[in-house]
């Protein structure tokens, strides 16, 4: 039962990617994190298309909103409309604090909305909080 | 049908299931309003443990408890006796309830446009893969295994507090997020 958790990170900012990987790698529980940098790649990964034919189905998606091409809201809408992807919990992890962005994310079935805080330490603590709840406390679907 | 509501700031039970209600986003003299938690669970022991754990972790909150699914839907829709029920910031929903079970409550709430954004955390003893998968497919916001001891209840409630009340921007608190 105590196996690694498969996570898909959809994030185009290299500094944020680095921080997510750093926090998850130093966490007490083992995660396997795959990273894609735009919305189309995220959907191709989840649908196992093209280069992602052998991709593992993630148990949790960390999704930025501001992405090149398809944005996070669009990825979320597509995921939640596809029966085989709808059951993957999605944590929105975005720099936006806009009420409309937040509302829309919940309406599109995001599990929760987390705003990226300013500053490296605050960002680290936030990511530790995401890890603590989702990997430490919550039960996730199988990959 | 059993229910009770308690304001954690005063510890005094409210009559009639959450009769005092402040508009969402309002702030009183003591800062932001306490978080409204609705627990739907037919086991009074678990409701009591949850309530005690919530007190233990020092989260300003109001705790509302209902023991069946039909009541939960009426509460969320503010029907009948629940006309003045506060819209919960967070729902803790058991799966196995008499008559209308948690899956049906989840499906009905999440298919209702004006209720679907209320975060629902499934809190159940079931660790069956099918239950977990099905709950997420019905758009549960999260799924947490119900603890068995007081210590574990405190640990789980602390984790929920830290994440859902400290890190997440809840839909009900989005205007305060900026």
Task: Explain what this protein looks like in three dimensions.
- The complex is a heterodimer of chains A (143) and B (178).
- Chain A has 143 residues and is α/β, with parallel strands linked by helices.
- Chain A has helices spanning 14-25, 39-47, 72-81, 83-86, 99-107, 120-137, and strands at residues 5-10, 31-36, 60-63, 90-94, 112-115.
- Chain A has one domain (5-136): Rossmann fold (3-Layer(aba) Sandwich).
- Chain A is globular and about 35 Å long.
- Chain B has a single domain (3-15, 32-167), classed as Response regulator (Rossmann fold), CATH 3.40.50.
- Chain B is built from five helices and nine strands, in the order E-E-E-E-E-H-E-H-E-H-E-H-E-H.
- In chain B, 45% of the residues are buried.
- Chain A binds chain B through residues 80, 83, 86-89, 97-99, 102-103, 106-107, 109, 111-115, 126, 129-130, 132-134, 136-142, and chain B through 110, 116-117, 119, 127, 129, 132-134, 136-137, 139, 141-145, 156, 159-160, 162-164, 166-169, 171, 174-175, 177-178.
